[in-house]
Every structure is written in C-alpha cells, then in structure tokens.
Design goal:
- By secondary structure, the protein is of the alpha/beta class.
- The protein folds into two domains: 191 residues, D-Maltodextrin-Binding Protein, domain 2 (3-Layer(aba) Sandwich), CATH 3.40.190.150; 115 residues, Periplasmic binding protein-like II (D-Maltodextrin-Binding Protein, domain 2, 3-Layer(aba) Sandwich), CATH 3.40.190.
- The protein has 13 helices and nine strands.
- Strands 1, 2, 3, 4, 7, 8 and 9 form a seven-stranded mixed beta sheet that branches.
- Helix 3 links the parallel strand 1 and strand 2.
- It starts with a helix and ends in a 6-residue tail after the last helix.
C-alpha cells in the first residue's frame, strides 16, 4: 500500500499542469558532481542519471567539478540560474561539513533548495591488504608504533573528519594524504601506497570482497546486510563510533516548486527501479523510507546534521589546506 501511494504521488508530480512544468525539461539537465570521476558521489550520480532521464524525457549530463573538498562544484550550482537545469548532488560532507571549515561564497542553506534524499551508507574502516593488522584493536596498536597514513578526498571530506574523530577516540596517530576524490584515494589504498581509509561501503566493498582490501569494521550499530561478516565498531572495540554518509539532490534557491517536484518525482521513480535498488543495496546502501522522500525531509535532515556536526568540526579546529 505504501509503494502504491508513493507511485500515485510520483505520477501526480510528473503530470503537474503548472505552466512552467508543462515545458520543463526542454533541454539537457546537468548534475554537477563536486569531485573527480570514479568516486562514490560520481557513481551515485551516474546510477541515477539514466532512469531519471527516461522519466523526465530529457538527457541528463554529468559534470565533474572537483576542488576544495567539493566546495567548487557546490558553489557552481549555488550560483546557477534557478531553472532546474543545474542540479547539485552531494552528501554529508559537501552539504554539512564544508561550511564549518571553508570560507564559502555561498550559503549552504539559503542559496540552495533541497530536492530529495538519496540512499545512505555507513563507512568501512578499511586497510591495504598487506597491512599487518587483522582487527581494529590490532590496527590501533600498529598505528601507535608506525608512521601510518590515511588517503582522503580532501580537508573536511567524510574520510578526513572520520579520521580526526578516530584519532581523538583511540589516541592513534597518522598523517593524511589528500586526493581530488575518494575514488583516487581508494586506488592508492588498493595499490598499497597508503595504509588506511574510512571509506563509504558502496565505494570499497567490492574490493573487500575481492581481497584487495581488508575491512576491519563498519561505522554503525548493525552489520551490513550486504557484508554480514564485517563487525560493527561496537563489536570491534570502538563503541558508538557511528558515521553514516547520506546523499541528496539540491537546486539553486528560487527554482520553481513545480520543477523541484518533477525532479523529486523522477529521482523517486529511479530509486524504485529494481536493478538500481539491487545494485546499490549490494554495495551496502540503504534507501530512505517513503516519508523521507520530500524536499522538506531532506532540508530537515541537513539542518539537524549541521546542528550536530558543526560544533564537533569547529572544536577540532580543522583548517583548509
């Protein structure tokens, strides 16, 4: 019944008779990924683009605009014309953490409007396959006596903030190595050039399964359905170290409500596609509940996360590189 109600809502939004909505979209839509190609945000955007394009009846282009941990790409959308043709995809790091770290030329709340919440996933604490630690406690011991390093997607990225909190909680020490995207950091981790990462499960789980990486814990209070063999941080000896990286779509503030509704409906329709659901679920992603799929729900989540994380980030005195 819930899915039937949701389908009716989607169809209603797509068939809006508002004057603007009758002509939108009449040209390609661009989703701006604020990182280089190959990372988890890029993967999410490309997974959504094809089914959303089919629903909207217009091409969807992916534009990778990396720089400053995602702030350049998000700023590009904040400054764009509010007509629904430039869309921001981002997550907990780009749309919550960054404004507490960087001096931005835009306001993350007042210059962007939420469209829809997308799937989320906890992080995996992953290490290079050759690292001589097979558990989280062994990892902490190893880090305390070796010059370890962590590959990140830049200062203020989800990996970076998780690493800082890990340092605080465990007393372990390591240096951060910044890359332009999580995908690039992951490739160097697989190659053994860096030791450790706090990576999104959707990004690193395939390499854990192939034996190219070792997963020491998942940052949640429940094991992943897609990888039940990986212990939780509670089980691994770091209780309460919970971090979930959630995703969303935003448009420039002032975008007509009927256009936001069409984008919202197309994303919801895409997330209902069995092939996409299986693909992302197999990577450890969890889909939002039907009552969390409104623009208002994403806006409320973003504000709640800002209230939670900004004091933590500012207390850590994180500075841009």
């Amino acid at each position: 019944m819930r899915m039937r109600t949701l389908a009716v809502t989607v169809l209603a939004a797509l068939s809006t008779t508002a004057a603007f909505g009758e002509t939108y979209p009449s040209k390609p839509i661009t989703i701006v990924v604020p990182f280089a190609a190959g990372g988890p945000v890029d993967v999410m955007a490309r997974a959504l683009a094809e089914p959303m394009s089919a629903t909207l009846g217009a091409p969807i282009l992916i534009e990778n605009v990396p720089g400053a941990a995602g702030t350049v790409g998000v700023g590009r959308v904040a400054a764009a014309k509010p007509d629904g043709y430039t869309v921001s995809i981002g997550h907990w790091s780009t749309h919550v953490l960054n404004p507490a770290i960087y001096q931005l030329r835009f306001d993350i709340i007042n210059d962007l409007a939420p469209v829809v919440m997308l799937p989320s996933a906890p992080q995996l604490i992953v290490a290079r396959a050759s690292l001589p630690a097979s558990s989280l406690t062994e990892l902490v011991t190893w880090l305390k006596s070796n010059n370890g390093n962590v590959g990140t997607a830049g200062v203020g990225s989800a990996i970076h903030v998780a690493g800082l909190l890990f340092k605080q909680r465990t007393g372990a020490d390591f240096v951060f190595v910044s890359y332009r995207s999580g995908g690039q950091a992951l490739q160097d981790l697989i190659a053994g050039h860096v030791d450790l990462s706090f990576d999104q499960a959707s990004n690193s789980l395939p390499y854990v399964r192939s034996g190219q990486l070792k997963a020491l814990a998942v940052t949640s209070n429940a094991r992943l359905a897609a990888a039940p063999e990986i212990p939780t941080v509670d089980e691994a000896g770091l209780p309460g170290f919970y971090i979930s990286v959630w995703y969303g779509l935003w448009v420039p503030k002032g975008t007509p409500a009927e256009v936001v509704a069409k984008l919202n409906a197309a994303a919801i329709q895409a997330m209902s596609e069995p092939a996409l659901r299986k693909r992302l679920s197999d990577l450890g992603q969890t889909f939002p509940a039907p009552d969390q799929l409104t623009p208002q729900a994403l806006g409320a989540l973003q504000k709640a996360e800002i209230d939670r994380w900004w004091p933590i980030v500012k207390a850590a005195d994180i500075k841009p590189e």
